[in-house]
Amino acid sequence: MDNVPILTILVFLPLAGSLAVLLPGARGAACCRMVTLAVALCELALAAGAVALAPRVSAPDGPLPGFFLVEDLAWIERFGIRYTLGMDGISLLMVLLTALLVLLVVLFSWKSHIERVAPYHALLLLAMSGIMGVFLALDLFLFYLFWEVMLIPLFFLIFAWGGEGRVPAALRFFLYTIGGSLLMFLAVIGLYLVHGDATGWYTFSLPALMNTPMTGSLSCWLFAAFLLAFAVKTPLFPLHGWLPDAYGAAPTAGSVLLAGLMAKTGAYGLIRFAFPLFPDAATAFTPLLLGLSVTGILYASWLAFAQTDVKRVVAYSSFGHMGLVVLGIAAWTPVSLSGSVLQMVNHGVTTGALFLMAGMLEERSGSREMASFGGLWGRAPLFSGLFLLFSLSALGLPGLNNFAGEFLVLAGTFRVSPVAAVLALCGMVLVLVYMLRLAQGLLFGSDRVQGEFADLSPREVLILGSLALAVVLLGVYPAPALDLLRVPVALLMVSTGGMP
To answer: Is this prediction's pTM over 0.85?
Structure first.
């Protein structure tokens, strides 16, 4: 496979599929779904195939240490822009998560009543292409290009296929994200010019820009611009204003992509770009990031408990759990950073499953209000059992996936800030309260469901069973995922001087 451009295929096969479903001869619903499914299956197969290459890590003194797959070509040489893609253990886990969730979203949409089927599936694949590019780009110009491409399909999925309040939700999402992105673009240009003036070499290459000499104040300003863009996408308190309406109004597929994948691009940007490019500024911002992360965890738990809409409970739960991810990144120890990356995967699996099940509730009953449900355990035992499993995973039950990630984040953070770790732990205890309240309200008590409530179909069992398997495997045996992180996390520590 050495001569196969795996990374390029991962990025551009979904784009090709997106264009294919829009062709005049392929606009039938069945054809669109088959093409989209075929592309998603190929992406998952390629991502799984890359796992076999993961042990072949490049030597520490190589041009791109830690990256076992690299594709580098000249692109716009006049401005120092190159087409550089790379995969290490961190990006491999993100690519696997992306391929899995998009495939399951396609399967979920298979029987759903969707208007304008061709554009809908084209946007799913375009979003996949942009997200894959974000996780693999090692040239800042190329990264920013994919970062903006990712925004377009997600905006239109909310705007055109969302539910009540979709227009203001889509506009708010667009304004928040484009505002942060434009500031990051200015910072990228500024870093490019500073590096060129200092070295005579104008480039957007990430490894080269990591050694850019600059003053402390300039470093802080540039880091703040990157941080703002990534914090909006994650989202980090108090830049989460777009989240509840966007997650609530988006179609189920859009909610899964927003919470399960787009939020990870923000955290990934902090790990791959912001902290390695500006280690001194990141150290200065560490107390602020720890404070905002803890505040977000506690605030999200409080708001989640007050919600009556199942989807909004999951949305605020997602917000809180991503605060824990940022907490581990801010602590920047090998243990906390490994836990944050593992938790990004865990969060994508668990939150994706809960959003899918919220969509199944709405399809069956036309409602997402908790007051409309109850007694589902007797009516739909398969649905109820899996919903309880994912709820227990979200609250961090030992033996399920979230526990391992949360433990590592809190243990690593405790070495840097015991107060932040203890307060975050209190926030995790609050998760126990609202998730058990949600599960009890839906599954037990008096039966309040009007009409028939069908249990899971074989297609839905396949979708949720795949995620349930991941929940159990990552909870019982997270070692393979953590082994993939050992080298890239160690190299990140070295590149930033072992901060904080």
So the answer is: yes
